[in-house]
Amino acid sequence: MTNSVTRHDAWNAGDSYDSYMGRWSRAIAPRFLDWLGAPDDQNWLDVGCGTGALSASILAQCQPRSLIAVDSSAGFLERARAATPHERAFFQVGDAQDLPLETASRDITVSALVLNFVHDKETMLAEMKRVTRPGGSVGLYVWDYPGGGVAFMRAFWAAAASLDAAAGDLAENKRFPYCTPDGLTALATNAGLASIACAPLEIATVFEDFDDLWRPFTLGAGPAPGYCATLSTDARERLKQALYDMLPHRDDGSIHLAARAWAIKARVA
To answer: Can you give the pTM of this predicted structure?
Structure first.
């Protein structure tokens, strides 16, 4: 992930992020690659690789000639490198807005769930275009925050706002309003990309029990857990109970929700 944009964003602890969103990143990455439909034996770049969810899927199903994965967080890179040992994969520190690669040096450049945490989004997309050869592909995806696409996160902020009116301003749907087909297509168009297509990607998010859902919110990695970490013990317990009361619980204690992302793919002319 890239650098955080508010005091409630904490994207530096790979293990904590993996418990919170990384497991869902791993679930949705193969669906993105299926939709992208890239050929084998290509030179890939994964921008903002985080803990390596998309990189691992590229290696598993796309038969890349090589994969370079870039992230600004050394902690995330350490986790990704350990989880994805492969002779064709290379992990390095880098800024999504100033990629440390030569122009037209990659066949396919992708990014998973990162755009929201980059200050200059059009610069990031322009950099992804720059390092991709003419005729190559650029693709990315982000969670559908404006459409309430991550149900457990939407429930968290609804519970928080029921106790703290100011919490509503921190929710992802307020902070990332461009995570829509029109918004993403406009960003890609402004970055000079061509043949732009957009599609939804959907997965189930199934939690064994309420603790499986709640515990990642207490670990501090991400806007919602970052907010949770600022609360007093009593306030956190009130939030926990409010969230519990909002969720659908099955007879076995499990909680079944859904998540949706919007994906963009484009060609470099």
So the answer is: 0.88
